Amino acid sequence: AAAASGGGGAGPCTMLLPLLLLFLPGLAAGPAGMLQPRDTPSRERRELGGLWSFRADLSPGRDAGFAQRWYRRPLRQTGPVIDMPVPASFNDITQDPSLENYIGWVWYEKEVLLPPRWLQGDPAPRVVLRFGSAHYYSIVWVNGVQVVEHEGGHLPFEADISSVVQGSPGTLCRITVALNNTLTPHTLPPGSIQYMTDKSRYPKNYFVQDIRFDFFNYAGIHRPVVLYTTPAAYIGDITVSTTSSDSVAMVQYQVSVVGSTANSLSLSLRDQEGKVVATGDGPVGELKVLNPNLWWPYLMHENPGYLYSLEVKMQAQVGGALLEDVYTLPVGIRTVHVTSTQFLINGRPFYFHGVNKHEDADIRGKGLDWPLIVKDFNLLRWLGANSFRTSHYPYAEEIMDLCDAYGIVVIDESPGVGIKLPESFGNKSLQHHLAVMEELIRRDKNRPSVVMWSVANEPASELPPAAHYFKTVIAHTKALDPSRPVTFVTDANYALDHGAPYVDVICVNSYFSWYHDPGHLEVIPLQLTAQFENWYKTYQKPIIQSEYGADSVPGLHSDPPLMFSEEYQKALLSEYHAVFDKKRKEYVIGELIWNFADFMTNQGTTRVLGNKKGIFTRQRQPKAAAFVLRDRYWKIANESSCLPPVITSHSLFL
């Protein structure tokens, strides 16, 4: 558990949680769309990464920042500040152990100069401040004026700050963020604050953050902060869906315009050579593409991840001015279909041979880092992995962009991890979960790489309230996006799971001979076979082994294999693979190793500097298991590939 302690006064035992909830109003419906910021002929963007001023509120109730209104003046005038990189988690940046495990409000600030052209014109352009994500609850001020609040640590939020900056003297823009990482039974992910009141054992005002998930609760501004402009009347949202046959594809589209009624709205679909292959006009319609280049997964086609560019142009009259907005959206043409035994992409059987990941690395925590992202994709392709699950929260848009471009298939998961307590299945939690799915689908609905939504990971789905909860969340998700299957990842007994009846694909986690019968590799064939047969007999739905694995300490060896050695991890994988090979001829449609790389967790007697189930170390160096998995994945790719000649890891990647 993470811990923090304060000085005298009322103390966090009485102040911290109420203070968080004070700033959790009823969640209002978000805007209809939130297009990813891009530079276009009508739009400009400016990233605000780098060093921000930072201050943790160390007052006993963590409320000094609000009581003293730190947002009203430069943060440096409120007391000591330090430099903090953005994007990054704040936990591992300093040598201060109290910041490593800090719970409560922290404050960020950045002062930027806006280009004068952003503040001029009739009408002046719209200026928007956007956060890729900040964990967990955010309140944002610009020049002392509150502009947005947002609950959730893994999805973008933004505010139109035009009236604030255009009404201020000069071009200085002071952005202040108050950020709280406290988790409650009703947040996603959930958590709880435990107050340690035994004064003989704990300091005054001592509390810990309890969580029921196995990764470190990093906090901070984790993804890029961007200022961008649009015309006063602008393209607000674009939704596309695709169908295809051998010789023709249809791209259905819907475009919304905000700020005025469009005088004209035109669309052009271009291939990768820039050639226009289809055109349309109006806010709703479809484009016909002859002899389309389909979006195929990596290792399923010689040209995976094919993307067209959909250019949308709008003209609108605002006052006496004729405004034009242009936005370009990458579009992949592909279909997804699920049968009782198969997962079909473009009508062909697809087998998930991939990984589970985390956004996690030394020093930066969950902060977006381009060298790490590119390294991870190079390792995925070296491995022969064609897919991953965004365990256990939505990943950065920059990562998703590369999945689209490289043909890496994604199971897109919400932050619904650690839903274990009965109170986390109540209406308050349910309503927030529905809102999170709306935000996730709004962000990723147009991505060809996203083939399935996962609404949760390892919830207590054996509890009776889980039936209504997951029936509602899954139905809501399907209503928002009828084009994709929906699942959640279970570790419950097949006969007791109340949520499984509502999913399209069974995703099951199991750790035979690790958490169950530890050290006994000989039980895996019997237990894993029974797992698959019981689930399939009950539900007649395709199954993905969504997690399996074993911890291994790099460089620790033992023969015969013993737990935590690299040999034991290899041996466990081999036992699982033998069963997979039998069942993938029937109804098993995928296997996702836990985990791609070692990652940080809370401290505990079973965790030595984090979870060691990675096939790569946290520094992305391979363990012995990485080579076992690589040989297997390339073999599977060769068996199922439509490519001539036979694929090798050298011909397609090295």
CA-based shape: globular
Give the biggest beta sheet.
8 strands, parallel, barrel
**Under the CATH scheme, which architecture of the largest domain would be assigned?**
Alpha-Beta Barrel
Q: What is the radius of gyration?
A: 25 Å
CATH class type of the largest domain = Alpha Beta
Number of strands: 33
What structural class do you assign from the helix and strand content?
alpha+beta
Total of DSSP H or I helical runs spanning 4+ residues: 12
Provide the helix percentage. Answer: 10-25%
Q: What would the average pLDDT be, to the nearest integer?
A: 92
CATH fold-level name of the largest domain:
TIM Barrel
- Into how many domains do the coordinates divide? 3
CATH superfamily of the largest domain: Glycosidases
Description:
There is one protein chain. With 654 residues, the protein is α+β, with helices and mostly antiparallel strands. The protein folds into 3 domains: 44-181 and 217-229, Jelly Rolls; 234-331, Immunoglobulin-like (Sandwich), CATH 2.60.40; 336-639, TIM Barrel, CATH 3.20.20. It contains 12 helices and 33 strands. Residues 1-31 and 644-654 have low confidence and may be disordered.
Describe this protein with a few key phrases.
654 residues, alpha+beta, Jelly Rolls, Immunoglobulin-like, TIM Barrel, 8-stranded parallel barrel, 6-stranded antiparallel sheet, 21% helix, disordered N terminus, disordered C terminus, glycosidase, carbohydrate binding, lysosome, EC 3.2.1.31, Glyco_hydro_2_cat
